[in-house]
Design goal:
Layout (H helix, E strand, L loop, with lengths): L2 E5 L2 E3 L5 E8 L4 E10 L6 E6 L6 E2 L7 E6 L4 E6 L8 E10 L5 E5 L3 E5 L2
């Protein structure tokens, strides 16, 4: 019911910046929580940042002060601005959205993932 498409990943040198985007398509009543998660090789998927419909933000300690999450409700999109990137930020980044369907149900959707590699 909700399809997420991510973009913006790539290879960047340490200290560089990238901006990830995620756009949702599908007919829903509303999109509540939006967020970004990441999974490095051999590790579990972890929360990077979330932003509920209220607009308040939550960040993993490892990215505080370097990453900024934002959302555009009119475009059903969420963004992640990543600055001062470090090699340990290398991972596949996944977009997540929790939406309310037209019949009042809850749907939890994930993007396909976009690779971010931080290396010199």
């Amino acid at each position: 019911q909700v399809h997420l498409v991510e973009s913006g990943g790539g290879l960047v040198q340490p200290g560089g910046s990238l901006r990830l985007s995620c756009a949702a398509s599908g007919v829903v009543r509303s999109i509540n929580d939006m967020g970004w998660y990441r999974q490095a090789p051999g590790k579990q998927r972890e929360l990077v940042a979330t932003i509920p419909s209220s607009g308040s933000t939550n960040y993993a300690d490892s990215v505080k002060g370097r990453f900024t999450i934002s959302r555009d409700n009119a475009k059903s999109s969420v963004y992640l601005q990543m600055n001062s990137l470090k090699p340990e930020d290398t991972a596949v980044y996944y977009c997540n959205m929790v939406a309310v369907t037209l019949n009042g149900g809850r749907v939890d959707s994930w993007g396909q993932g976009t690779q971010v590699t931080v290396s010199s």
